[in-house]
Each structure stands twice: as structure tokens, then as C-alpha cells.
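Case study 2.
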Amino acid sequence: MQAIKVAPRPRLAGTFAAVCFAAVLIPVLVYASNGPDGDNGPRAVTVKGEVVDLWCYIDHKGHGQKHKSCAVACVEAGNPIGIVDGSGNLYIAMGGKKHQPGREILMDHMADTVTVKGNLIKTGGLQAIYVNSVEK
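Prediction:
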């Protein structure tokens, strides 16, 4: 059997692998630096919306003045509070101070439309506002 000679070719495998690696790595790094929702961390916001208890709102869209007594009962039982703006965006409400629950700030405003100022944070598909002030 006779050996077949093959003409030498330049080795592009290393260059090709580097280009492919960069094409995959760069978008991943950009995504990771922006977070899962393209957010670069907390930013100051003002949101106007209805204060709701998250249990009833998520379970059966319970909200409004007719639902107020139930919302208060849910919050007194320890359920979290949210704010729903005019476009239907739902924000988890948290206190503006470290370890401060949102209920401390918003419990007296259940089912009311308020304007809150604070810092918006998005992570894992959720959005929350660290509430610094509330105006009715």
C-alpha cells in the first residue's frame, strides 16, 4: 500500500476556535454585566399606582376599594405588599432602609392609589421598589 501525500495547509483551527469563543463569550459577558433584565442596578424612580396585597392580586386579581378589608387582613397576616401602576406593571414593595419591610410604610394605604419614590431593582424576572416616600 502506498502512502498518500497531502499538501500542507495552514492551521486555522486555533484561530477559528478563538473567533468562535469570542463570538460566544462577548454577548455572555455583556448580558452578565447588565443583569438578567438588562438593568445595571438600583435606579431612582417615581411610580403611581394602587397598593395591593400580593396574595390576592396574584391569585385572583383582588384589588380596589371593595377588596380593601381583605387586603388589610392579608397584610396583617404577613403577606407581602405590591404596587400596580396604570399599565398593569406589578412592583414588590420593600422599605427603603435596610431590612425594613414594605408593610411598615404602605399598610395604611391598602387599596389606595399612591405615588411612591424610591429605587427600582430588577432581578430574576422580578421587580421591586425600595420605597423611600409615599404620597397619597
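The CA atoms of residues 68 and 111 lie 5 Å apart.
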